[in-house]
Amino acid sequence: MNFMDELLAEVEEKEEKRKLELDRLRADQLLTVISKFEDQAKGINELADSEVILIEGFRKTELSKLNKKISWLAWNLEQFIRSSNEKTINLPHGSIKLRLGRDKVSVVELQRFLDSPTNQRFLKIIPESYEPDIQAIHEYIKQAGHIPDGIDMKPAEAKFSYTITRSNNNGNEKQQRTSEDRAPIESANKITVVEE
Asked: β-pairing, 123-126 with 129-132?
């Protein structure tokens, strides 16, 4: 038993007897012990913080490696389904799909768009301002097959997704996630990743 432990035991014993009598020397000794304990607590906190940093670094590195492997495998699955000319392939451990997204319409030359008299029907009228109604333009292009002046349209692209089926005692779950969301590996029973 060292000096601090002896002093602490003595203080605790005296406190129990409610006869703790302090003089200046004893009070200074107690402050020294408190200071030592605070230093120990600070050291423990610093050690724990440095360990947390190491563990976080390890987690990021390992997840990055796994996500690169997953992305590579998903790319191979996408190439396979694109070459098969099928939209959905169901497999024992999941399914892979190609789904067609929406065409993207954007106004690239606003003044040219506004100057065209035929485009006036595609304006949302907001007091004191004009804004192209992208939905109305999209529907017009779909019906008429004509792209109005000042408009650029990018055709929809087929988007790739895959679903992994996992089973456990709780049954099956389905979770839809995009490729941007697919960071940490989760323990869900069924995970779906959609490549955008």
From this structure: antiparallel
Question: What is the spatial distance between Cα 42 and Cα 44, in angstroms, rounded to a whole number?
Answer: 5
* pTM score over 0.70: no
Q: What is the DSSP letter of 33?
A: H
Q: Whose CA is closest to 152, among 161, 141, 143, 160?
A: 141
Query: Is residue 49 over pLDDT 90?
Result: yes
- Provide the residue type at 189 as one letter: N
Residues paired with 96 in a beta bridge: 89, 162
How many helices (H) and strands (E) in the chain?
4, 9
Residues linked to residue 164 through DSSP beta bridges, in sequence order: 94, 191
For residues 150 and 108, the answer to whether their CB atoms sit within 8 Å is yes
103 and 137 Cβ atoms separated by less than 8 Å: no
Residue spans of the domains in the chain: they are 104-154
